[in-house]
Write a structure and sequence with these properties.
Blueprint: H1 3-46, E1 56-60, E2 65-68, H2 75-80, H3 94-104, E3 111-114, E4 124-127, E5 133-137, E6 142-146, H4 154-164, E7 172-175, E8 178-182, E9 187-188, H5 194-215, H6 221-230, H7 238-241, H8 246-253, E10 258-262, E11 270-273, E12 277-280, E13 286-290, H9 293-302, H10 304-311, H11 316-325, H12 334-356, H13 363-377
Antiparallel strand pairs: 1-2, 1-3, 2-4, 4-5, 5-6, 6-8, 7-8, 9-11, 10-13, 11-12
Helix pairs in contact: 1-3, 5-9, 5-10, 5-11, 6-8, 6-12, 9-10, 9-12, 12-13
């Protein structure tokens, strides 16, 4: 290769590298701008409740959470709201990005001084995806929820009280439109060993058995009927079709009672006290759902050893007792366990469709089903279906 060709090749490489650096810098700038906007939005949401916060300096851990300086973030909140300090630029473009950020003036104030609060009060404020706000006072053992999807009327109080009579949950009161509840101090579910996770789920199933026996009523027929109506245009993923038998499901659902239940079956919102007793937190809404909806949702969301234990029959004893309390029969065959998971996925998709406003015939139905069923299959054995 001639010297001229080498120089030309080197020049092209330098130009290509510069283009990549510029592209990365603009990408980082967009990320910084979005983070700045998110911080500003969360600060505006918190501002009306500043008098409830402790006086001091607050820092923004991410686009939705403000915490008092040196206030540790609880484990469940840390997992739900991982700290985000903006995108990390690639080596070599850091200075360029810094200059660009100053040029377009997108830097957000990293701190906020609260001077109107008292010497005691909430020390963490985080906005929720539905427009609400959560205030936390870990040292004082309190959590307050404001607005968003929290319905604090008499129906909410009655359903949650009935639920809490059988399933361990944070004690709560309603004050001036806020749900104020105890801060549950325990071990996050995801910090437990596989054996401890399975044991905790068995305890949760036992709690739901007591709930069903005392509070179960009505029928899940309409709920399952509406869920099946969503997929009447062949929206079911191929891998899921073998486990959805509409006539059999409608027949079974007629005798499946509804119970007051938490709506968000996510192990991120499960705190275990005394290393064994699971306590659902973040009970933003409570509604009547099929009796198996929440505990089986926890099984699926936990995935890994918990889901494997269910599929292998290791939870059959607890499931038999749960179904007996419901006046029904649990099908402990391999296909029966999967059919129940499929029924749970159908109801979860129905709830999501009502929240987001899509219906039968929408491509969104098939996409949601594919995603939910795929998440279950992702950590299960290859031959589970």
């Amino acid at each position: 290769m001639t010297l001229r060709a080498v120089r030309a090749a080197n020049g092209s490489a330098v130009l290509a590298g510069a283009k990549v650096a510029v592209a990365r810098s603009w990408s980082v700038a967009r990320g910084v701008r979005r983070l700045a906007a998110a911080k500003a939005t969360s600060r505006r949401a918190v501002l009306p409740y500043a008098p409830l916060l402790r006086r001091g300096v607050y820092v923004a851990d991410d686009g939705r959470t403000w915490r008092r300086w040196r206030q540790p973030v609880p484990e469940h909140l840390r997992r739900t709201r991982p700290p985000q300090h903006g995108p990390r630029p690639a080596p070599g473009v850091t200075r360029m990005v810094a200059r660009l950020a100053r040029t377009v003036r997108v830097a957000a104030p990293p701190v906020w001084l609260v001077g109107r609060g008292g010497p005691t009060g909430y020390s963490i404020a985080t906005s929720t995806h539905d427009g609400g706000l959560v205030l936390l006072d870990p040292s004082g053992g309190r959590v307050a929820r404001v607005g968003g999807g929290t319905g604090v009327g008499s129906d909410y109080v009655a359903l949650r009280s009935r639920y809490g009579a059988h399933v361990p949950m944070p004690a709560f009161e309603v004050h001036d439109g806020m749900v104020v509840e105890e801060f549950v101090d325990g071990v996050h579910f995801l910090e437990l060993s596989a054996t401890e996770q399975v044991a905790a789920v068995k305890v949760l199933l036992g709690s739901y058995t007591a709930l069903v026996r005392a509070e179960g009523g009505g029928s899940s027929a309409d709920r399952l009927g509406d869920a099946l109506a969503l997929v009447e245009h062949s929206a079911l993923p191929p891998a899921m079709r073998a486990y959805v038998d509409p006539p059999a499901l409608r027949h079974a659902a007629a005798s499946w009672p509804l119970v007051p239940s938490g709506t968000d079956a996510n192990v991120k919102n499960l705190i275990v006290v005394s290393r064994r007793t699971p306590v659902p937190i973040d009970l933003v809404t409570v509604r009547d759902d099929p009796f198996f909806y929440f505990p089986l949702g926890i099984v699926g969301n936990a995935r890994g050893p918990v889901l494997q234990t269910y599929l292998d029959g290791g939870l059959d004893g607890e499931m038999h007792r749960l179904f007996q309390a419901a006046g029904s029969r649990f099908d402990a065959s391999a296909s029966g366990r999967l059919s129940l998971l499929a029924a749970r996925v159908l109801v979860a998709t129905l709830h999501q469709a009502r929240r987001e406003g899509f219906g039968a015939g929408s491509a969104r139905v098939g996409a949601v089903l594919e995603e939910r069923w795929g998440e279950l299959r992702s950590t299960a054995p290859a031959d589970w279906y």
